[in-house]
Amino acid sequence: MGLGVVGGGVADALLQNPSPVSERVGRAVNLRRVLVRDTSRSRDVEVPPGLLTTDAGEILDDPEIDIVVEVMGGSDPAADYFRRALESGKHLVTANKEVMAKNGVDLLELAQANGVTLRFEASVGGGIPIVGCLMNELAANDIYHIRSIINGTTNFILTRMALQKAPFAEALAEAKGLGYAESDPTNDVEGIDAAYKLTVLATLAYGRRFRPEHVYRQGISALEPQDFRYAEEFGFAIKSLAIADIQDGEVQLRVYPALVPAENMLGNVNGVYNAVEVHGSLTGRVLFHGMGAGRGPTTSAVLGDLVATARLMSRETSLAGPRHFKEQAAVRSIGSVFTRYYIRLIVADQAGVLAQIARALGDEGISIASVLQKDTDLESQSAEIVIMTHPAQESFVQRALLSIGNLEPVRRIGNMLRIEE
Ligand SMILES: NC(=O)c1ccc[n+]([C@@H]2O[C@H](COP(=O)([O-])OP(=O)(O)OC[C@H]3O[C@@H](n4cnc5c(N)ncnc54)[C@H](OP(=O)(O)O)[C@@H]3O)[C@@H](O)[C@H]2O)c1
Questions:
Q1: Does the keyword Transmembrane apply (predicted)?
Q2: Cα of 55 to ligand 1 centre, how many Å?
């Protein structure tokens, strides 16, 4: 289902003679039907016209079809097609993070109830094999945290802003020009796509039900070129991180731009690359790094799932692979995050301002690690103050920022970013 960027790669592999999938499975895997919206559209992959259909029923109701590969995207009508496929005893392979984030556990249970498999390696990290590793190879670990860069578009924009000190709008226009950002980039730049992927990863890591609404989310559009300059002066890069961690049995999920030490592995993931760092109780830290999108990497993940499914079908083993998800874990609010903070303020260039700001922070028990005063603008008589705090709890920092915003000499809070070390 779907013959776009990913579907084209999958169809191409299946139509080669001999197909690499058939060779690896050890018996023929044939492409029987391809669902599209418009059969007359010209395409970059040659598919015999007789295979194309706009009627999902020709796939879902065909008893000869064993495995459905869904690479259309979106939750409607995909989620409905998932249910119909699983209920009619078809195995499913998908790249769809949205459906897996919103309905993943229910669909996995439906697959199990129907004795079929549902695989979704391509839904997170493109060609990086993180889904299967969390489910299998890392299954013996308690996962202390996952820290990841899982949206290539955002990482490309942030890399451009850092290298060229370019404004957000300019870096976004470049990403669109290169085909890395869609015409409506909201899902990427507002962290929605990353929140879907983090929901999938957290569900697997903690064996619990999570939903995208559990993820605290902050986009990257408010970042300004000077944030990158100051971060660099302090020895940090700015990255949009998707983080899951657990404390006293409570999970915290968040997607936001954060300062990462420049020498840290995640601080060096640039352009459209993705990376996922998993901290396991037995493994310690493990880092996955690679291409998070594009035809080749995503096709690799889909075909890997297809080969695994077809191989299992050839054996007389139970296909469902029981996996139990407990009810949802308690989810901690963003206010409970404990870290250091970068705060940039635009203030009137007058004596005593810093003392007032320090007092507002001190009133909430927050101490300052270092301060920079920059860019005095003679005309508007304003200056920029950059503060790096010592570790503090976020709810106290938010309260202090409210007081600071109300101080007479403070013209604007430029940005507040967390520091993830
Ligand atoms: N592109 C990537 O690098 C990448 C990476 C990881 C995961 N993914 C995921 O993979 C999936 C597919 O992405 P893509 O980039 O390949 O998308 P795409 O290029 O936009 O292709 C979507 C395909 O699905 C078909 N389609 C869409 N809605 C349909 C409907 N309601 N009924 C029938 N056919 C429909 C389209 O048909 P027409 O051709 O007739 O319009 C098109 O062939 C998404 O879930 C995406 O999140 C993509």
A1: no
A2: 16
Confidence (pLDDT) at 376? 74
Domain boundaries of the chain, sorted by first residue: 5-119+295-314, 135-291, 334-419
Confidence of residue 144 (pLDDT cuts 50, 70, 90): very high
Contact at 8 Å (CB) between 265 and 238?
A: no
231 or 349, which is more confident?
A: 231
Give the right CATH number for 5-119+295-314 from 3.30.470.20, 3.40.50.720, 3.40.50.1370, 3.30.360.10.
3.40.50.720
Question: What is the pLDDT, as a whole number, of residue 319?
Answer: 47
Which among 359, 351, 353 has a CA at the least distance from the CA of 403? 359
Taking a C-beta distance cutoff of 8 angstroms, is the pair 251, 215 a contact? no
Helix, coil or strand: residue 336: helix
Q: Is the CB of 298 under 6 A from ligand 1?
A: yes
- Ligand 1 centroid, distance to 71 Cα (angstroms): 5
Q: Quote the ligand 1 centre to 92 CA distance (angstroms).
A: 16
Query: What is the structure's pLDDT at 323?
Result: 65
Is-same-fold flag (5-119+295-314; 334-419)?
no
**Which residue's CA is minimally distant from atom 28 of ligand 1?**
72
User: In ligand 1, which atom is closest to the CA atom of 123?
Assistant: 7
Question: Average pLDDT of the chain?
Answer: 94
Which one from 90, 97, 197, 239 is the annotated catalytic residue? 197
Rg of the chain, C-alpha, whole Å: 24
CATH 3.30.379.10 fits 135-291, yes or no: no
Each residue of 32-83: pLDDT tens digit? 999 999 999 999 999 998 999 999 999 999 999 999 999 999 999 999 999 9
Q: Which CATH class is domain 334-419?
A: alpha beta
pLDDT at 320: 46
Q: In terms of DSSP bridges, do strands 382-389 and 338-348 run parallel, antiparallel, or are they unpaired?
A: antiparallel
Q: Among this protein's residues, is 197 annotated catalytic?
A: yes
Ligand 1 pocket, 335 CB below 6 A? no
